[in-house]
Amino acid sequence: MKSPLEYTVLQPANAQPDKKYPVIFVMHGRGANEHDLLPLVEELQNDFIIFGIRGDVPEGPGFAYFTNISHGNPDRASFDRCIEKLQGVIDYAAKTYPIDTNYQYLLGFSQGAILSMSLAVAMGNKIKGIVSMNGYIPTFVKEDYPAVPGENVSIYLSHGEVDHVYPLEHGLDNKQFFEGRGNKAHFSSYPVGHGITPGNRDEFVKWLYDDVAAK
């Protein structure tokens, strides 16, 4: 079995035989690659298996996961193919690495955030939680994706207060959407544009540890 998308994996240096670990699947923004966000989470690798997943659509100096018809309007066919491939990566990882499938997390920024939230809708309670930063949920995901039970998915959302790419209103809409599905959704905004602050990073790292500990 081969992964549908290229990836880099970080594993605990002193992994215990026969122990299964929580996993974080990390998804980058447009024009970046699978290594872009790993410095934000690399300190977690003694407690999590961490996958940096590369999009397969060339864009600028790096890659994207899907194409857009216009800004904020993904090409549906490209997007759906991407969702299918990402689910394939998650399935592949569970069969290939010592992963505790009760603790599968998604983490994404910008386009990766869009996908993290959309996968939470598509996969429901197969996912333990998501960290989604500076993204939005496409209308067709909200309206057309099958209603998969997902009330147990933990949601961490953050957004830049002066984000010029996806304005703050998107972040507030994301929170409202997930709360409407019965999820407990944490939301934070930060005095930044389309980016991640050190405080944002520290908060989501703590959130991840707390969510795993909560069982």
Automatic annotation (TrEMBL):
It comes from the Bacteria. Keywords: Hydrolase. GO terms for molecular function: hydrolase activity. Coiled coil: none annotated. PANTHER family: LYSOPHOSPHOLIPASE-LIKE PROTEIN 1, LYSOPHOSPHOLIPASE-RELATED. Belongs to the AB hydrolase superfamily. AB hydrolase 2 family. InterPro entries: AB_hydrolase_fold, LYPA1-2/EST-like, PLipase/COase/thioEstase. Residues 21-197 form the Phospholipase/carboxylesterase/thioesterase domain. This is Phospholipase/carboxylesterase/thioesterase domain-containing protein. The keyword Magnesium does not apply. The keyword Hydrolase applies. It comes from Ammoniphilus oxalaticus.
